[in-house]
């Protein structure tokens, strides 16, 4: 610490209340042809302090929609709460769950409504569209959004996104002679990419670690196809004969 | 967690008086000098502050500790302040940060408890409800840019379940089996985690008390804004109990054997 | 129909100390089709008779979900019911937002009773033309309440409202002591028996005109729901199994007529249709 000299005290200094902080962590979502995977670590930190080893960042909205939030935790929790209440009203009015693309637009209007005092949160929405395809929507804090095949956000975005660009979009890869890159990867491959992303981010980023939560949304009629016995898997599905939702919890390194 | 409340809710600036060694009235003036600029004065900084609060889960419930000091800058101003406060029959709330804001919070919670009791319908507020209410209150105030300058620990036991959580002036919340605010987040939290994590269902009341006392002793040795006079609250199936103030055995004789700091020359 | 000059303004007492407008509002509840509510130690349930205005029309909705832990059945003006149920939904969601708990059911009912009371006292207002049976589960177990336009609310072991509800009440009064220890299936059967009493001579309960609302652990004919035990409405084919469980109605001497103290002794033909706002 530098000792302040008396001159610096003479100058007025801006010490206004700052309503934001950063709580670290990373989130990630990948869409498949008929599934979607949404994941986040569970560490919450501020500066060099770990506040808790378990604070969820990924939330079930409906059987076919999962929202991951990252940035300022207080804003994130409040935002998720408000989205859930809007979805509850939709359910009262229409007696069904809001479709994914409508939730995406709802999130954009809710974020933009706070354009001049933003929720300091990066959102990633994953799930199943009405046509049965897996989808990922990513947002900036003031509501700009687009549908994508994959997205990483948060503290380790700069570590994970290039890895996804290479493994999902096959950037800087040449397909073998006479073949082409697949446009969608199978669930098993996607899950191992997600797990590898987080173990790697945990190694190299101090704000990532402790625990990993992976949500898996499956299109109507699709099964886990042999992955039922995978370690730490639990079904969360509520509705009958609709989309199915699973969560998988894993440990990450705690150092 | 920044251990000095004056810096909470502010952009980090390690170059400026990180340890708040200057008396408050010598602080630089913050903001415009225009007489007509603002009709209302918001809390821009805490004045009389409390330091760390510690809390752990143990076999029978939750145990919390906080000392009795309220500081005015570096002056030990009030030395018999209770910073652990009972709310309803199942909850204790412990506060660091601005003590006048904490007294206001106690007032709000008292009103709330009276409303709940006077309904006379068998419903009672437990720690989960108090936590949610406090997080909403703190977040709402930060969103009005008029925060309550505190970091709070909420511990409780109701319906056979123990509960422990943190809320601060930004509305940030979290829950864990050990929590510490202020300087305690640096000094005591590692000790608490080592002693408690994974053993929450094993630790007895005596052991829990020893863990907290040992941590409070270290804090007294290391935190210049702390005092060797503190209280411990236990919340279990037997209800809430907040102890009388107590003191710890401390030893300072080793200090004269320390070499390399201060006035010693050899 | 008009009684006297104290009819037109609900803030003026009649010389007998009555508020005629409030009493007319209670009549509107009696015009609506019947709803029955029962409670056991583990469950609270609602049963309601749906009506349609004709072959071509759909059946009027009689039950509304307020929150995971509260549901209502209505008798009277559906439009008034929608206003009140939206208010209840707001209250319940507010409680979840601020305290993260299901709103205590008695407080939810009191909140609409207070609203209804204001309408019986302030100039230029009219009372709500609808009555509710409210079931819910909170920290103190399952509950059944009645709400009425007069601003009163009461808790019950069992209750019925709406057209010819006195017949259902007679059944409930005869059997209510056994309800506390009933399982869900028996409780629903009792409810259906009570509801059947409100039917006109030539009518029967069927999958189209019967709604069942449940709070409490899932029964043996139900599939798991989330969160467990939350309010659900059974309609259509899902009530068939319960209708099958009913016992044949014994052809007893003529059903007990409603007491004639209230002036609905001679309802005009067709007057048991739901009151429509346009009508």
Query: Level of helix content of chain B?
Result: 25-40%
Structural class of chain A: alpha+beta
Secondary structure class of chain B reads alpha+beta
- Biggest sheet strand order of chain A reads 10-1-2-11-13-12
Number of helices of chain B: 4
In angstroms, what separates the terminal alpha carbons of chain A?
Answer: 27 Å
Average pLDDT metric of chain B = 89
Distance between the termini of chain B: 37 Å
Question: How much helical structure, as a percent, in the residues of chain A?
Answer: 25-40%
Low-confidence stretches of chain A: 1-14
Using DSSP, what is the number of strands of chain A? 13
**How much strand content do the residues of chain A show?**
25-35%
Q: Round the Cα radius of gyration of chain A to an integer and report it.
A: 20 Å
Cα-atom radius of gyration of chain B: 19 Å
Tell me about the largest β-sheet of chain A: 6 strands, antiparallel
> What are the secondary-structure elements of chain A, in order, as H or E?
HEEEEEEHHEEEEHHEEE
**Total DSSP E strands of chain B:** 13
Mean pLDDT of chain A: 93
Largest sheet of chain B: 8 strands, antiparallel
Q: What would you call the quaternary organization?
A: heterotrimer
Main location (chain C): cytoplasm
Subcellular location (chain C): Cytoplasm; Nucleus
Organism (chain C): Suillus placidus
Keywords (chain C): Cytoplasm, Nucleus, Proteasome
Explain what the structure shows.
The complex is a heterotrimer of chains A (255), B (266) and C (279). In chain A, the strands form three sheets. Chain A has a six-stranded antiparallel beta sheet. A five-stranded antiparallel beta sheet of chain A has the order 5-6-7-8-9, with helices on one face. Helices cover 27% and strands 29% of the residues of chain A. The model of chain A is unreliable at 1-14 (pLDDT under 50). Chain A has 255 residues and is an alpha+beta fold. The two termini of chain A are 27 Å apart. In chain A, 45% of the residues are buried. Chain B is of the alpha+beta class and 266 residues long. Chain B contains four helices and 13 strands. In chain B, strands 1, 4, 5, 6, 7, 8, 9 and 10 form an eight-stranded antiparallel beta sheet that branches. Chain B is globular, with a radius of gyration of 19 Å. Chain C is α+β, with helices and mostly antiparallel strands and 279 residues long. In chain C, β3 (63-67) and β4 (70-76) form a beta hairpin. Chain C starts with 19 loop residues before the first helix and ends in a 35-residue tail after the last helix.
């Amino acid at each position: 610490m530098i000792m302040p000299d008396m001159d610096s005290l003479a100058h007025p200094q801006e010490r206004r209340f700052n309503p934001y902080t950063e709580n670290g962590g990373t989130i990630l979502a990948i869409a498949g042809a008929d599934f979607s995977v949404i994941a986040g670590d569970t560490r919450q930190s501020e500066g060099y302090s770990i506040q808790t080893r378990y604070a969820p960042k990924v939330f079930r909205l409906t059987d076919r929609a999962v929202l991951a939030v990252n940035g300022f935790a207080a804003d994130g929790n409040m935002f998720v709460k408000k989205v859930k209440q809007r979805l509850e009203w939709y359910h009262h009015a229409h007696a069904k769950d809001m479709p994914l693309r409508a939730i995406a637009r709802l999130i954009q209007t809710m974020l933009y409504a706070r354009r001049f005092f933003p929720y300091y949160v990066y959102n990633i929405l994953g799930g199943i569209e009405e046509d049965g395809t897996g989808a990922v929507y990513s947002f900036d804090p003031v509501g700009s959004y687009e549908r994508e095949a994959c997205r990483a956000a948060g503290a380790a975005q700069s570590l994970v996104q290039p890895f996804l660009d290479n493994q999902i979009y096959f950037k800087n890869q040449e397909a073998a002679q006479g073949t082409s890159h697949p446009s969608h990867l199978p669930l098993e491959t996607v899950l191992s990419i997600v797990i590898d992303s987080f173990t790697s981010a945990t190694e190299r980023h101090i704000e990532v670690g402790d625990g990993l939560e992976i949500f898996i949304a499956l299109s109507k009629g699709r099964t886990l196809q042999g992955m039922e016995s995978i370690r730490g898997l639990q079904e969360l599905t509520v509705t009958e004969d609709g989309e199915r939702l699973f969560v998988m919890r894993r440990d990450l390194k705690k150092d | 967690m920044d251990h000095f409340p004056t810096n909470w809710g502010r952009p980090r600036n390690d170059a400026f008086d990180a340890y708040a060694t200057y008396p408050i009235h010598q602080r630089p003036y913050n903001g415009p000098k225009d007489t007509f600029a603002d009709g209302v004065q918001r809390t821009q900084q805490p004045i009389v502050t409390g330091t760390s609060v510690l809390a752990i889960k143990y076999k029978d419930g939750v145990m919390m500790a906080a000392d009795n000091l309220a500081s005015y800058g570096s002056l030990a101003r009030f030395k018999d302040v209770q910073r652990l406060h009972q709310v309803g029959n199942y909850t204790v709330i412990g506060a660091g940060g601005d003590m006048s804001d904490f007294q206001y919070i106690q007032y709000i919670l008292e009103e709330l408890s009276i409303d709940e009791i006077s309904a006379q319908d068998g419903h009672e507020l437990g720690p989960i409800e108090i936590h949610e209410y406090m997080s909403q209150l703190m977040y709402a105030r930060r969103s009005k840019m008029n925060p309550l300058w505190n970091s709070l620990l909420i511990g409780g036991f109701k319906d056979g379940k123990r509960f422990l959580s943190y809320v601060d002036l930004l509305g940030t919340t979290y829950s864990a089996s050990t929590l510490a605010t202020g300087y305690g987040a640096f000094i005591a939290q590692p000790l608490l985690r080592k002693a408690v994590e994974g053993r929450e269902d094993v630790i007895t009341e005596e052991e829990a008390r020893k863990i907290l006392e040992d941590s409070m002793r270290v804090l007294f040795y290391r935190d210049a804004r702390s005092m060797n006079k503190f209280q411990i609250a236990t919340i279990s199936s037997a209800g809430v109990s907040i102890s009388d103030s107590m003191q710890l055995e401390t030893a300072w004789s080793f200090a004269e054997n320390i070499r390399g700091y201060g006035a010693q020359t050899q | 129909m008009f009684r006297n000059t104290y009819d037109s303004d609900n803030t003026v007492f009649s010389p007998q100390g009555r508020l005629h407008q409030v009493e007319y509002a209670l009549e509107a509840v009696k015009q609506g089709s019947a709803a029955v509510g029962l409670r056991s130690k583990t469950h609270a349930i609602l049963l309601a008779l749906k009506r349609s205005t004709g072959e071509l029309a759909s059946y009027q909705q009689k039950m509304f979900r307020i929150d995971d832990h509260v549901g209502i059945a209505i008798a009277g003006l559906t439009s008034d019911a929608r206003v009140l149920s939206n208010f209840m939904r707001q209250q319940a969601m507010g409680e979840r937002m601020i305290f993260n708990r299901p709103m205590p059911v008695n407080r939810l009912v009191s909140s609409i009773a207070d609203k209804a009371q204001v309408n019986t006292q302030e100039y230029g207002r009219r009372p709500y033309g609808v009555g509710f049976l409210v079931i819910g589960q909170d920290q103190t177990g399952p509950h059944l309440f009645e709400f009425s336009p007069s601003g009163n609310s009461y808790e019950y072991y069992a209750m019925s409202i709406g057209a010819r509800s006195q017949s259902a009440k007679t059944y409930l009064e005869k059997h209510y002591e056994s309800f506390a220890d009933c399982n869900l299936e028996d409780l629903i059967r009792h409810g259906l028996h009570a509801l059947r009493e409100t039917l006109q001579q030539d009518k029967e309960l069927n999958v189209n005109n019967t709604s069942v609302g449940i709070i409490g652990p899932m029964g043996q004919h139900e599939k798991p729901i989330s969160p467990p035990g939350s309010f659900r409405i059974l309609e259509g084919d899902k009530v068939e199994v319960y209708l099958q469980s009913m016992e044949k109605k014994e052809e007893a001497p003529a059903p007990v007529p409603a007491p004639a103290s209230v002036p609905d002794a001679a309802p005009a033909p067709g007057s048991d249709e739901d009151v429509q706002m346009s009508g």
